[in-house]
Predict the structure.
Amino acid sequence: MPTNRQIRLLRRPQGALTPDIFEMSAGEVPAPGPGEVLCRVRYISLDASNRAWLDPRPTYKPPVAVGGVMEGITVSEVVESNVEGLEVGDLVESFSGWQDYAAHPGTMVRKIPAGAPAEHAISVLGITGLTAYFGLLDIGKIVPGERVLISAAAGAVGSIAGQIAKLKGCTVIGSAGTDEKCRWLTEELGFDGAINYKTADLGAALGQHFPKGIDVYFDNVGGPMLQQALLRMRMRGRVVCCGAISSYDGQGGAGMRGIPELLVVKRLRMEGFIVMDYFSRRAEAEAALMGWLADGSITNRVDIIDGLEHAPEALIGLLTGTNIGKRLVQL
Ligand SMILES: NC(=O)c1ccc[n+]([C@@H]2O[C@H](COP(=O)([O-])OP(=O)(O)OC[C@H]3O[C@@H](n4cnc5c(N)ncnc54)[C@H](OP(=O)(O)O)[C@@H]3O)[C@@H](O)[C@H]2O)c1
Protein backbone atom coordinates (compact mmCIF):
# COMPACT_ATOMS: atom_id res chain seq x y z
CA MET A 1 0.00 0.00 0.00
CA PRO A 2 1.44 3.43 -0.88
CA THR A 3 1.61 5.95 1.96
CA ASN A 4 0.73 9.58 1.68
CA ARG A 5 3.67 11.75 2.73
CA GLN A 6 2.41 15.08 4.00
CA ILE A 7 4.17 18.25 5.14
CA ARG A 8 2.25 19.84 7.98
CA LEU A 9 2.51 23.22 9.65
CA LEU A 10 3.66 22.59 13.23
CA ARG A 11 3.44 26.22 14.42
CA ARG A 12 3.21 29.69 12.97
CA PRO A 13 6.49 31.38 11.99
CA GLN A 14 7.85 34.15 14.18
CA GLY A 15 9.77 36.38 11.83
CA ALA A 16 11.66 34.89 8.91
CA LEU A 17 10.60 31.40 7.87
CA THR A 18 12.62 28.44 9.22
CA PRO A 19 12.22 24.81 8.14
CA ASP A 20 11.46 23.59 11.67
CA ILE A 21 7.94 25.01 11.57
CA PHE A 22 7.09 22.17 9.18
CA GLU A 23 7.02 18.44 9.84
CA MET A 24 6.81 15.51 7.44
CA SER A 25 4.30 12.83 8.42
CA ALA A 26 2.89 9.74 6.72
CA GLY A 27 -0.86 9.60 6.33
CA GLU A 28 -3.21 7.25 4.54
CA VAL A 29 -3.99 7.60 0.89
CA PRO A 30 -7.59 8.87 0.88
CA ALA A 31 -10.32 6.95 -0.94
CA PRO A 32 -12.22 9.14 -3.41
CA GLY A 33 -15.95 9.34 -2.65
CA PRO A 34 -18.77 9.60 -5.17
CA GLY A 35 -18.13 12.53 -7.51
CA GLU A 36 -14.46 12.68 -6.48
CA VAL A 37 -11.09 11.96 -8.03
CA LEU A 38 -7.92 10.77 -6.31
CA CYS A 39 -5.01 12.97 -7.38
CA ARG A 40 -1.34 12.09 -7.21
CA VAL A 41 0.68 15.27 -7.00
CA ARG A 42 3.36 15.76 -9.68
CA TYR A 43 4.34 19.42 -9.22
CA ILE A 44 3.77 21.90 -6.40
CA SER A 45 3.80 25.58 -7.25
CA LEU A 46 5.82 27.62 -4.77
CA ASP A 47 4.50 31.13 -4.54
CA ALA A 48 5.55 34.17 -2.55
CA SER A 49 2.00 34.29 -1.19
CA ASN A 50 2.54 30.89 0.51
CA ARG A 51 4.44 32.83 3.19
CA ALA A 52 1.56 35.24 3.76
CA TRP A 53 -0.85 32.29 4.21
CA LEU A 54 1.18 31.14 7.26
CA ASP A 55 0.47 34.26 9.29
CA PRO A 56 -2.64 34.28 11.48
CA ARG A 57 -4.26 37.24 9.73
CA PRO A 58 -6.42 36.28 6.76
CA THR A 59 -5.28 37.40 3.34
CA TYR A 60 -7.57 36.74 0.38
CA LYS A 61 -8.02 33.28 1.90
CA PRO A 62 -8.03 31.93 5.46
CA PRO A 63 -4.61 31.12 6.97
CA VAL A 64 -3.16 27.60 6.72
CA ALA A 65 -4.34 25.74 9.85
CA VAL A 66 -1.70 24.82 12.45
CA GLY A 67 -1.47 21.02 12.26
CA GLY A 68 -2.88 21.01 8.73
CA VAL A 69 -1.16 20.07 5.49
CA MET A 70 0.68 23.02 3.94
CA GLU A 71 -1.48 24.39 1.15
CA GLY A 72 -0.42 24.98 -2.40
CA ILE A 73 -1.43 24.88 -6.03
CA THR A 74 -0.47 21.62 -7.73
CA VAL A 75 -0.52 19.76 -10.99
CA SER A 76 -1.64 16.22 -10.29
CA GLU A 77 -2.35 13.04 -12.16
CA VAL A 78 -5.76 11.44 -11.73
CA VAL A 79 -5.14 7.94 -10.36
CA GLU A 80 -8.76 7.00 -9.52
CA SER A 81 -11.88 8.65 -10.82
CA ASN A 82 -15.55 8.65 -9.88
CA VAL A 83 -16.17 11.61 -12.14
CA GLU A 84 -17.47 11.44 -15.67
CA GLY A 85 -15.10 13.24 -18.03
CA LEU A 86 -12.02 12.77 -15.84
CA GLU A 87 -10.03 9.68 -16.68
CA VAL A 88 -7.16 7.94 -14.95
CA GLY A 89 -3.98 9.51 -16.35
CA ASP A 90 -5.48 12.97 -16.90
CA LEU A 91 -3.38 15.86 -15.61
CA VAL A 92 -5.34 18.38 -13.57
CA GLU A 93 -4.71 21.62 -11.73
CA SER A 94 -5.71 21.10 -8.11
CA PHE A 95 -5.19 22.68 -4.72
CA SER A 96 -3.76 19.53 -3.19
CA GLY A 97 -0.99 21.06 -1.08
CA TRP A 98 2.32 19.62 0.07
CA GLN A 99 1.48 15.90 -0.02
CA ASP A 100 1.55 12.93 -2.36
CA TYR A 101 -2.19 12.31 -2.68
CA ALA A 102 -5.47 14.17 -2.19
CA ALA A 103 -9.09 13.41 -3.07
CA HIS A 104 -11.13 16.27 -4.53
CA PRO A 105 -14.64 16.73 -5.89
CA GLY A 106 -14.53 16.79 -9.69
CA THR A 107 -15.75 20.39 -9.58
CA MET A 108 -12.60 21.45 -7.69
CA VAL A 109 -10.04 20.29 -10.25
CA ARG A 110 -9.42 21.59 -13.74
CA LYS A 111 -8.12 19.51 -16.61
CA ILE A 112 -5.03 21.18 -17.97
CA PRO A 113 -5.22 22.29 -21.60
CA ALA A 114 -4.34 19.61 -24.15
CA GLY A 115 -0.77 19.90 -25.36
CA ALA A 116 0.37 22.05 -22.42
CA PRO A 117 3.34 20.48 -20.62
CA ALA A 118 2.72 20.24 -16.86
CA GLU A 119 5.54 22.75 -16.09
CA HIS A 120 3.85 25.37 -18.29
CA ALA A 121 0.38 24.57 -16.96
CA ILE A 122 1.48 25.37 -13.41
CA SER A 123 3.46 28.48 -14.30
CA VAL A 124 3.02 30.64 -17.36
CA LEU A 125 -0.42 29.16 -18.13
CA GLY A 126 -1.38 29.12 -14.46
CA ILE A 127 -1.54 31.76 -11.73
CA THR A 128 1.86 33.23 -12.69
CA GLY A 129 0.98 34.01 -16.30
CA LEU A 130 -2.56 35.15 -15.52
CA THR A 131 -1.29 37.53 -12.85
CA ALA A 132 1.27 39.05 -15.20
CA TYR A 133 -1.22 39.30 -18.07
CA PHE A 134 -4.17 40.87 -16.27
CA GLY A 135 -2.06 42.97 -13.92
CA LEU A 136 -0.18 44.58 -16.74
CA LEU A 137 -2.93 44.87 -19.34
CA ASP A 138 -6.07 45.38 -17.26
CA ILE A 139 -4.75 47.23 -14.22
CA GLY A 140 -1.64 48.83 -15.75
CA LYS A 141 -3.35 49.49 -19.10
CA ILE A 142 0.04 49.78 -20.79
CA VAL A 143 0.23 51.62 -24.11
CA PRO A 144 2.99 51.11 -26.73
CA GLY A 145 5.88 53.48 -26.12
CA GLU A 146 5.32 53.73 -22.38
CA ARG A 147 8.14 53.26 -19.88
CA VAL A 148 7.52 50.37 -17.52
CA LEU A 149 9.32 49.31 -14.33
CA ILE A 150 8.93 45.74 -13.04
CA SER A 151 10.24 44.63 -9.63
CA ALA A 152 11.16 41.03 -8.71
CA ALA A 153 11.60 40.95 -12.48
CA ALA A 154 13.58 37.69 -12.58
CA GLY A 155 10.92 35.87 -10.58
CA ALA A 156 7.91 34.01 -11.88
CA VAL A 157 5.34 36.80 -12.30
CA GLY A 158 7.87 39.55 -13.00
CA SER A 159 9.70 37.73 -15.80
CA ILE A 160 6.44 37.09 -17.67
CA ALA A 161 5.09 40.60 -17.02
CA GLY A 162 8.27 42.18 -18.39
CA GLN A 163 8.18 40.09 -21.54
CA ILE A 164 4.52 40.97 -22.17
CA ALA A 165 5.33 44.66 -21.75
CA LYS A 166 8.12 44.31 -24.34
CA LEU A 167 5.75 42.51 -26.73
CA LYS A 168 3.33 45.40 -26.38
CA GLY A 169 6.00 47.90 -27.45
CA CYS A 170 7.01 49.36 -24.10
CA THR A 171 10.46 50.22 -22.78
CA VAL A 172 10.99 47.87 -19.86
CA ILE A 173 13.40 48.05 -16.93
CA GLY A 174 13.47 45.29 -14.33
CA SER A 175 14.87 45.14 -10.83
CA ALA A 176 16.33 42.00 -9.32
CA GLY A 177 18.65 40.99 -6.52
CA THR A 178 21.74 39.66 -8.33
CA ASP A 179 23.88 40.64 -11.34
CA GLU A 180 23.25 37.19 -12.83
CA LYS A 181 19.50 37.84 -12.76
CA CYS A 182 20.00 41.29 -14.26
CA ARG A 183 22.05 39.81 -17.11
CA TRP A 184 19.33 37.21 -17.78
CA LEU A 185 16.74 39.99 -18.04
CA THR A 186 18.69 42.08 -20.54
CA GLU A 187 20.61 39.43 -22.47
CA GLU A 188 17.95 36.74 -22.77
CA LEU A 189 14.53 38.21 -22.08
CA GLY A 190 15.03 41.45 -24.00
CA PHE A 191 14.53 43.91 -21.14
CA ASP A 192 15.93 47.35 -21.98
CA GLY A 193 17.72 47.61 -18.67
CA ALA A 194 18.02 46.07 -15.25
CA ILE A 195 18.82 47.34 -11.76
CA ASN A 196 20.39 45.23 -9.03
CA TYR A 197 18.35 46.72 -6.20
CA LYS A 198 20.70 45.26 -3.58
CA THR A 199 23.76 47.14 -4.81
CA ALA A 200 22.38 50.18 -6.66
CA ASP A 201 21.47 53.58 -5.32
CA LEU A 202 17.78 53.15 -6.22
CA GLY A 203 16.94 56.81 -6.68
CA ALA A 204 19.96 57.40 -8.93
CA ALA A 205 19.39 54.20 -10.93
CA LEU A 206 15.73 55.03 -11.57
CA GLY A 207 16.75 58.54 -12.58
CA GLN A 208 19.24 57.12 -15.05
CA HIS A 209 16.85 54.55 -16.57
CA PHE A 210 13.79 56.79 -16.53
CA PRO A 211 14.97 60.31 -17.36
CA LYS A 212 11.36 61.23 -18.29
CA GLY A 213 9.79 59.21 -15.48
CA ILE A 214 7.89 55.94 -15.13
CA ASP A 215 4.49 55.49 -16.79
CA VAL A 216 3.65 52.11 -15.23
CA TYR A 217 5.23 50.45 -12.20
CA PHE A 218 4.35 46.75 -11.78
CA ASP A 219 5.06 46.38 -8.07
CA ASN A 220 5.80 42.93 -6.71
CA VAL A 221 7.78 44.05 -3.69
CA GLY A 222 6.54 47.20 -1.91
CA GLY A 223 9.11 48.71 0.50
CA PRO A 224 11.96 50.98 -0.62
CA MET A 225 11.51 50.23 -4.34
CA LEU A 226 7.89 51.39 -4.23
CA GLN A 227 8.97 54.48 -2.33
CA GLN A 228 11.56 55.38 -4.95
CA ALA A 229 9.30 54.49 -7.87
CA LEU A 230 6.55 56.79 -6.57
CA LEU A 231 9.00 59.67 -6.53
CA ARG A 232 9.86 58.93 -10.16
CA MET A 233 6.33 58.38 -11.54
CA ARG A 234 5.14 60.51 -14.43
CA MET A 235 1.97 62.51 -14.34
CA ARG A 236 -1.06 60.17 -14.60
CA GLY A 237 1.15 57.11 -14.14
CA ARG A 238 -0.24 53.81 -12.88
CA VAL A 239 1.12 51.63 -10.10
CA VAL A 240 0.00 48.00 -10.37
CA CYS A 241 0.01 46.65 -6.80
CA CYS A 242 0.59 42.97 -7.42
CA GLY A 243 2.36 42.03 -4.18
CA ALA A 244 4.68 43.23 -1.43
CA ILE A 245 7.22 40.47 -0.87
CA SER A 246 9.55 42.80 1.06
CA SER A 247 7.09 42.66 3.96
CA TYR A 248 5.95 39.01 3.84
CA ASP A 249 8.71 37.20 5.70
CA GLY A 250 8.40 38.86 9.07
CA GLN A 251 9.97 42.19 8.12
CA GLY A 252 6.73 44.14 8.66
CA GLY A 253 5.57 46.84 6.27
CA ALA A 254 7.59 50.02 6.39
CA GLY A 255 5.23 52.93 5.85
CA MET A 256 5.52 54.81 2.59
CA ARG A 257 6.22 58.47 2.57
CA GLY A 258 4.34 60.43 -0.03
CA ILE A 259 0.99 58.64 0.03
CA PRO A 260 -1.37 60.27 -0.62
CA GLU A 261 0.52 63.46 -1.50
CA LEU A 262 2.37 62.01 -4.49
CA LEU A 263 -0.78 60.30 -5.73
CA VAL A 264 -2.65 63.56 -5.60
CA VAL A 265 0.01 65.81 -7.07
CA LYS A 266 0.91 63.44 -9.89
CA ARG A 267 -2.71 62.25 -10.46
CA LEU A 268 -1.47 58.67 -10.05
CA ARG A 269 -3.66 55.60 -9.98
CA MET A 270 -2.45 52.88 -7.61
CA GLU A 271 -4.57 49.75 -7.77
CA GLY A 272 -4.34 46.34 -6.20
CA PHE A 273 -5.81 43.16 -7.63
CA ILE A 274 -6.00 39.44 -6.96
CA VAL A 275 -5.72 37.15 -9.95
CA MET A 276 -8.77 35.13 -8.87
CA ASP A 277 -10.91 38.13 -9.84
CA TYR A 278 -10.00 37.30 -13.44
CA PHE A 279 -10.71 33.57 -13.55
CA SER A 280 -13.81 34.13 -15.69
CA ARG A 281 -11.48 35.54 -18.39
CA ARG A 282 -8.87 32.80 -18.08
CA ALA A 283 -9.40 31.48 -21.63
CA GLU A 284 -8.45 34.86 -23.11
CA ALA A 285 -5.14 34.99 -21.23
CA GLU A 286 -4.36 31.33 -21.85
CA ALA A 287 -4.87 31.71 -25.59
CA ALA A 288 -2.57 34.74 -25.73
CA LEU A 289 0.12 33.17 -23.54
CA MET A 290 0.04 29.85 -25.43
CA GLY A 291 0.40 31.74 -28.71
CA TRP A 292 3.40 33.72 -27.43
CA LEU A 293 5.02 30.56 -26.06
CA ALA A 294 4.45 28.70 -29.32
CA ASP A 295 5.95 31.42 -31.52
CA GLY A 296 8.87 31.95 -29.15
CA SER A 297 7.93 35.51 -28.15
CA ILE A 298 8.09 34.63 -24.48
CA THR A 299 10.36 32.34 -22.51
CA ASN A 300 9.06 30.45 -19.51
CA ARG A 301 11.92 29.54 -17.19
CA VAL A 302 11.13 26.98 -14.52
CA ASP A 303 13.32 26.31 -11.52
CA ILE A 304 12.60 22.76 -10.39
CA ILE A 305 13.48 21.40 -6.96
CA ASP A 306 13.25 17.64 -6.70
CA GLY A 307 11.48 15.97 -3.77
CA LEU A 308 8.62 16.84 -1.44
CA GLU A 309 11.01 16.83 1.52
CA HIS A 310 12.81 19.86 0.02
CA ALA A 311 9.68 22.03 -0.21
CA PRO A 312 10.32 24.01 3.02
CA GLU A 313 13.88 24.99 2.01
CA ALA A 314 12.67 25.72 -1.51
CA LEU A 315 10.07 28.18 -0.19
CA ILE A 316 12.60 29.81 2.12
CA GLY A 317 14.92 30.15 -0.87
CA LEU A 318 12.20 31.78 -2.97
CA LEU A 319 11.65 34.36 -0.24
CA THR A 320 15.36 35.17 -0.22
CA GLY A 321 15.75 35.15 -4.00
CA THR A 322 17.49 31.85 -4.83
CA ASN A 323 15.03 31.18 -7.67
CA ILE A 324 15.21 32.39 -11.25
CA GLY A 325 11.83 32.14 -12.95
CA LYS A 326 9.05 29.96 -11.60
CA ARG A 327 9.99 27.70 -8.69
CA LEU A 328 8.29 24.28 -8.59
CA VAL A 329 8.73 21.20 -6.46
CA GLN A 330 8.61 17.98 -8.44
CA LEU A 331 7.38 14.82 -6.76
N1 LIG B 1 -2.02 39.80 -6.93
C1 LIG B 1 -2.03 38.52 -7.24
O1 LIG B 1 -3.06 37.93 -7.56
C2 LIG B 1 -0.72 37.78 -7.22
C3 LIG B 1 -0.64 36.46 -7.75
C4 LIG B 1 0.61 35.83 -7.75
C5 LIG B 1 1.73 36.48 -7.22
N2 LIG B 1 1.57 37.74 -6.71
C6 LIG B 1 2.72 38.47 -6.17
O2 LIG B 1 3.73 38.52 -7.14
C7 LIG B 1 4.99 38.69 -6.49
C8 LIG B 1 5.97 37.66 -7.06
O3 LIG B 1 5.54 36.39 -6.61
P1 LIG B 1 6.08 35.03 -7.26
O4 LIG B 1 5.31 33.95 -6.59
O5 LIG B 1 6.09 35.18 -8.73
O6 LIG B 1 7.56 34.94 -6.69
P2 LIG B 1 8.94 35.10 -7.47
O7 LIG B 1 8.96 36.48 -8.05
O8 LIG B 1 9.19 33.94 -8.33
O9 LIG B 1 9.97 35.01 -6.26
C9 LIG B 1 10.03 36.04 -5.34
C10 LIG B 1 11.22 36.95 -5.64
O10 LIG B 1 11.09 38.13 -4.87
C11 LIG B 1 12.37 38.70 -4.70
N3 LIG B 1 12.46 39.29 -3.35
C12 LIG B 1 12.50 38.64 -2.16
N4 LIG B 1 12.58 39.52 -1.14
C13 LIG B 1 12.61 40.75 -1.70
C14 LIG B 1 12.72 42.08 -1.18
N5 LIG B 1 12.78 42.30 0.14
N6 LIG B 1 12.72 43.10 -2.05
C15 LIG B 1 12.66 42.89 -3.37
N7 LIG B 1 12.57 41.66 -3.94
C16 LIG B 1 12.54 40.61 -3.11
C17 LIG B 1 13.39 37.58 -4.89
O11 LIG B 1 14.23 37.89 -5.99
P3 LIG B 1 15.45 38.94 -5.90
O12 LIG B 1 16.70 38.16 -6.09
O13 LIG B 1 15.17 39.86 -7.04
O14 LIG B 1 15.38 39.59 -4.55
C18 LIG B 1 12.55 36.36 -5.23
O15 LIG B 1 13.11 35.57 -6.26
C19 LIG B 1 4.73 38.54 -5.00
O16 LIG B 1 4.63 39.80 -4.39
C20 LIG B 1 3.38 37.85 -4.96
O17 LIG B 1 2.68 38.07 -3.78
C21 LIG B 1 0.38 38.38 -6.70
The pocket of NAP is lined by residues 47-49, 127-128, 131, 152, 154-158, 176-178, 181, 220-221, 223, 242-246, 273-275, 318-319, 321, 323, 327 (CB under 6 Å). The chain has a mean pLDDT of 95. The chain has ten helices and 15 strands.
